[in-house]
Specification:
The protein is an all-alpha fold. Among the domains are: 2-146, no CATH class; 252-350. 74% of the residues lie in helices and 0% in strands. The protein contains 15 helices and no strands. Helix 5 (121-146) packs antiparallel against helix 10 (222-251), helix 7 runs antiparallel to helix 9 and helix 12 (291-308) packs antiparallel against helix 13 (313-330). It is globular.
Length: 380
């Protein structure tokens, strides 16, 4: 049964990839998509069959198959404008990168207890990576042409741009220190533990300032830089967002992270509605219109609080459910979607079943982290 499931996963990935190649890349229409999907599904299933007894080779083959379509989207995108050749080269490069680099990184994170691969891990990477890459490519392409970025880069003083970048670097460093404080006794130890991350943030900030200065003084145009950054950023997001689910499942064993993140996503929809009516908030009789902004902010604060104080997850989750219900009163539930996602996230926070700390279980030795690193269930 397990072997058939493995072949089924790779066949699904092959069928959809082949349909895209036959129907869109080769412009074969519906007939081309059908034959392309059937052909590639059969080829991948036949290629995987001899690898069923070789776990490492099988894993690399599945990662390579899952990453081929996102690479094709990047290589054949309007950013690069090199057509079918770019799509083929991008798909091959993406498959090689996934098979020999990304697979090792994910396995290493899994061995350290930081990542959980679900049963549909490869299909999820394929669907999530392809969709995120596609939407990111188009969104960044539209955004680059929708605003006068070069004019803004010239008009804003370099001192202001540098100050903004350094402020974000400092904020990121403070967040790193707060994160490290969970596993250290003093703030001095936390600062020492966050030194490497702070150095990386500083280097990144200096690179951004250097790039901003090149835009400001017309050494480089925003359009030329976007042609390079846009595809890379889209491809990176195509990996980061789908893989974030595995990290969330792993982190959910320690704290109700999964439910909290869902609440934050729902809160964003609620805030969008609240911000959309912002010009009317100061008019007479607009009291109820404040509900969108207030409820959205409350949901975000409670979601963060649920991760800081996991032992109070039932109480905080109950308030999250209440806030999600109230979002339907003045913010239409964040276009309904936000309220539903918030309710689901609040329910996950209430039902979170992460173990208590060793100290609470009666052990005298202090734990290395606030909650133990392992949990019998994937969702906590």
């Amino acid at each position: 049964m397990g072997k058939m499931f493995e072949i089924g996963q790779i066949a699904v990935i092959g069928a959809l990839t082949g349909a895209f190649i036959g129907g869109i890349v080769l412009q074969g229409g519906i007939e081309g998509a059908l034959w392309g999907g059937l052909a590639l599904a059969a080829v991948l299933a036949a290629a995987v069959w001899p690898l069923l007894e070789r776990p490492t080779a099988l894993m690399r083959a599945k990662y390579g198959a899952a990453a081929f379509l996102p690479g094709m989207l990047v290589g054949g995108s309007q950013w690069l404008s090199i057509g079918v050749v770019g799509a083929a080269v991008g798909g091959a490069a993406s498959s090689a990168l996934a098979a020999f680099v990304a697979s090792r990184l994910i396995v290493r994170q899994e061995e350290q207890g930081r990542y959980i691969r679900t049963r549909f891990h490869y299909v999820w990477l394929f669907f999530g990576g392809s969709l995120v890459t596609f939407f990111a490519l188009n969104a960044l392409f539209v955004a680059e042409r929708a605003a006068p970025w070069q004019t803004w880069a010239r008009s804003i003083p370099m001192a202001v741009q540098s100050s903004i970048v350094l402020a974000f670097v400092l904020l990121g460093y403070m967040i790193c220190i707060g994160w490290k404080k969970r596993k250290t006794e003093t703030w001095r130890q936390a600062r020492s533990a966050a030194r490497r991350a702070g150095g990386a943030l500083l280097v990144g900030g200096l690179l951004l300032i250097a790039a901003a200065s090149m835009f400001h003084y017309d050494f480089l145009s925003v359009h030329d830089a976007a042609r390079f950054v846009g595809p890379l950023l889209s491809y990176a997001l195509g990996w980061i967002l789908p893989c974030a689910v595995g990290f969330l499942f792993a982190a959910n064993r320690h704290r109700p992270v999964l439910g909290s993140v869902l609440v934050m996503i729902g809160a964003i929809f609620v805030l969008i509605v609240g911000i959309s009516v912002f010009p009317m908030l100061l008019l007479p009789g607009s009291g109820l219109m404040w509900a969108g902004l207030v409820t959205g902010l409350v949901m975000i604060v409670l979601a963060i609080l649920s991760m800081i104080k996991p032992q109070s997850h039932v109480t905080i989750g109950s308030f999250l459910i209440l806030a999600s219900i109230l979002s339907f009163v003045g913010a239409a539930g964040g276009l309904i979607i936000g309220g539903i996602i918030g309710l689901l996230g609040g329910a996950l926070v209430v039902g979170w079943s992460g173990k208590q700390t060793e100290k609470q279980e009666g052990h005298s030795s202090p734990p290395a982290s606030p909650l133990p690193p392992h949990s019998p269930t994937m969702t906590g």
